[in-house]
Amino acid sequence: EKKDLMLMDNNVVASANYQNIIAEIRGLGFERGAKLSRGRSNLQRRVDFNQGVDARILCKDIMYLKEMSTIAIKPLRIAFDHIGARKPYETAIRMSHEVGIHELSNYMLYNFTDSPSDLYQRMRLNIDLNGELKIRIFSFPMRYQPTDMKNRSFIGKKWTKFELRSVQTILQATHGVVSGSPDFFKNAFGENEEKFHDLLIRPNHYLFNRAWYEK
Predict the structure, then answer these.
(1) pLDDT greater than 80 at residue 130
(2) CA gap 184, 194 in Å, rounded
(3) Exposure class string for 7-45: b at 16+ Cβ within 10 A, else e
(4) pTM across the whole model
């Protein structure tokens, strides 16, 4: 018996056996609120699908999220790879809130067909949803690199090498996480798109040590 159950499935909701998979997870003792007794301690059990599930499928039928809410999912990871997916993504987040899933995380692909503005808008949407719904969404921007390139030299058509380096520097300072806190987000990424673009052209040493320079 283990406290946590991690599944390396890259899109469980696309499976024709989805409901059977969720039922099996419950049957293994990982239902919502499940705890594992070890000596005098009761440890909270946790299920993690360690890839981002597909918002385009989730938003079609609330059944998917109702089923997900019956297990000890923490967090629910939903992919948000470009701003064109905003509608299904936002619908999936609101439906998650409706069924009681309030711990969420997502992967954000960037340096693909997107632009810096696209990335900022996606991060900003999560901040706004956190405030409105009183939930917690943590974002993890993931830089796109073609799998057939042995070095990390790919630059998307709407990015520059310096902008990519700046984003990496900011993420290095935040340990790769875009927190759900509005104040944290404002300090790290700027209060609007204009401020974000301004940060991306600053020297990297300034970005990483911003608090020191500002004081």
Answers:
(1) yes
(2) 17
(3) eeeeebbeeeebeebbeebbeeebebebebeeeeeeeeb
(4) 0.91
